[in-house]
TrEMBL record:
<feature type="domain" description="GH16">
    <location>
        <begin position="13"/>
        <end position="243"/>
    </location>
</feature>
<keyword id="KW-0472">Membrane</keyword>
<dbReference type="GO" id="GO:0008843">
    <property type="term" value="F:endochitinase activity"/>
</dbReference>
<dbReference type="GO" id="GO:0005975">
    <property type="term" value="P:carbohydrate metabolic process"/>
</dbReference>
<keyword id="KW-0732">Signal</keyword>
<feature type="transmembrane region" description="Helical">
    <location>
        <begin position="298"/>
        <end position="323"/>
    </location>
</feature>
<dbReference type="InterPro" id="IPR000757">
    <property type="entry name" value="Beta-glucanase-like"/>
</dbReference>
<dbReference type="GO" id="GO:0031505">
    <property type="term" value="P:fungal-type cell wall organization"/>
</dbReference>
<feature type="signal peptide">
    <location>
        <begin position="1"/>
        <end position="22"/>
    </location>
</feature>
<keyword id="KW-0961">Cell wall biogenesis/degradation</keyword>
<comment type="function">
    <text>Dual chitinase/transglycosylase that plays a role in cell wall architecture. Chitinase and transglycosylase activities are coupled. Required for the polysaccharide cross-linking at the septa and the cell wall. More specifically, transfers chitin to 1,6-beta-glucan in the cell wall.</text>
</comment>
<dbReference type="InterPro" id="IPR013320">
    <property type="entry name" value="ConA-like_dom_sf"/>
</dbReference>
<dbReference type="GO" id="GO:0009277">
    <property type="term" value="C:fungal-type cell wall"/>
</dbReference>
<keyword id="KW-0328">Glycosyltransferase</keyword>
<dbReference type="GO" id="GO:0016757">
    <property type="term" value="F:glycosyltransferase activity"/>
</dbReference>
<keyword id="KW-1133">Transmembrane helix</keyword>
<dbReference type="Pfam" id="PF00722">
    <property type="entry name" value="Glyco_hydro_16"/>
</dbReference>
Amino acid sequence: MAGFMKTAAFVLAATAVSKVSAQTFSDCNPLFNTTCTPNPAFGTWHDWNFTDSVIADTKIWNTTGGTPDYTDVGAQFTINGKGDSPTLESNFYMFFGQVSVIMKAAPGVGIVSSVVLESDDLDEIDWEWLGGNNTSVETNYFGKGNTTSYDRAIYYDVDDVTGTIHNYTLDWTKEQLQWIVDDKVLRTLKYADALNGENYPQTPMKLKIGIWAGGDPDSNSNGTIEWAGGIVDYHQTPFTMTMERVYVADYSTGSTYTYGDQTGSWESIKIAAGNSTVAQRLSKPHGAEAHYKALPKWAQAAIAAGSVAVFAIALVAFIFCCIKSRRAGRRERDAADAQWEKDMQELAEYKRNSPHGPNGGAGKEYF
Ligand SMILES: *[C@@H]1O[C@H](CO)[C@@H](O)[C@H](O)[C@H]1NC(C)=O
Ligand SMILES: *[C@@H]1O[C@H](CO)[C@@H](O)[C@H](O)[C@H]1NC(C)=O
Ligand SMILES: *[C@@H]1O[C@H](CO)[C@@H](O)[C@H](O)[C@H]1NC(C)=O
Ligand SMILES: *[C@@H]1O[C@H](CO)[C@@H](O)[C@H](O)[C@H]1NC(C)=O
Ligand SMILES: *[C@@H]1O[C@H](CO)[C@@H](O)[C@H](O)[C@H]1NC(C)=O
Ligand SMILES: *[C@@H]1O[C@H](CO)[C@@H](O)[C@H](O)[C@H]1NC(C)=O
Ligand SMILES: *[C@@H]1O[C@H](CO)[C@@H](O)[C@H](O)[C@H]1NC(C)=O
Ligand SMILES: *[C@@H]1O[C@H](CO)[C@@H](O)[C@H](O)[C@H]1NC(C)=O
Ligand SMILES: *[C@@H]1O[C@H](CO)[C@@H](O)[C@H](O)[C@H]1NC(C)=O
């Protein structure tokens, strides 16, 4: 989560009470560099209902700053101590679209829960929740990395943001951007109202969902700490944000999005035809996750409970059923069995390293 921290650190200079965090760099900024690689498109829609059997696919989401815990109430992003900032960052980009997060923010003075869309040329759309304020959500935006104005952040009253699940939705088109909570439109930004479109977010965006300690004096300026609501008291940990569901719909379809020139205007974006790799991956369940979901509920429960014996019985039962039902040629069956074995190893490995397993989340994700 260096990204979030860096962005926040930048902020403060402006005023004593800065109200922003803005992305200040990207790996390749197409406004200054004509050789940036195309953005992989999303080009579809998907509803992630995160639970312990639906965890973020690492081919679709990058994880930084720690891994969320997947539980039966959703993906939990927790700060247990200094330096924690679990974040999911999409590998895909959307070019206008809808994002709904069904979630509750983390409590804790100085703790920032954050849902951010950002593009390679530093357009940005934000939701932020400051853990010291249980009744407020911040909305914000930036165009082309322009941070010279600090009046774009607007706070709205929302009841019990840390205790109640709300639906926070962004509806983003080339004409207007809306921040919506539980079907109520809080804020509408028209293209023309953002410096005649110049500051309007309008380039392909990736999605970042995370939590960070804006009130940690070791990694933030005084201005950021003040904005975040004060200094974090790590004796009060854990601070947990819960993401029950994440719905994303890309309003464009295609396989990649490329900046056609250095204007940063939406009209300059070239869309390559075809299905995106993410769309293909989502439309076809794969690997261990698919096998896991195909198992009977009792077998899933056994695996989740980490019962090796029951797991083994489930495995044998499943292989038996599959061999029986698979009347394909021997070669094909062997190949499938090898794949199955590999998947089950991955699954076992995943469970061993999962937050609920013996290693308490020390390991990698496999789905
Ligand atoms: C442009 O991007 C390429 C690829 O990321 C990088 O190697 C190169 O240094 C960049 N050039 C400039 C001027 O930023
Ligand atoms: C999410 O999935 C879980 C487990 O399948 C289910 O119990 C729950 O109702 C789902 N939640 C929503 C909001 O669809
Ligand atoms: C995600 O991780 C992969 C592999 O570590 C890396 O190649 C890719 O650039 C990352 N994507 C983003 C958007 O950071
Ligand atoms: C919470 O934020 C709202 C602005 O949305 C502000 O009016 C209120 O005073 C804040 N409450 C606390 C306890 O800081
Ligand atoms: C940045 O935005 C401010 C208004 O928010 C505007 O006055 C200024 O001209 C913009 N700067 C650039 C380089 O577009
Ligand atoms: C947050 O506010 C709600 C009422 O809106 C209240 O019931 C709840 O106890 C508050 N939680 C905290 C941590 O202050
Ligand atoms: C969230 O709110 C949006 C906008 O009102 C709505 O389209 C969507 O159906 C809602 N999602 C859920 C799960 O309620
Ligand atoms: C930041 O705040 C601390 C504690 O109030 C103070 O000692 C320090 O001088 C401040 N630093 C700056 C750069 O204002
Ligand atoms: C894209 O996916 C759809 C549905 O999955 C399929 O019908 C179509 O042939 C695919 N198009 C390409 C270019 O692969």
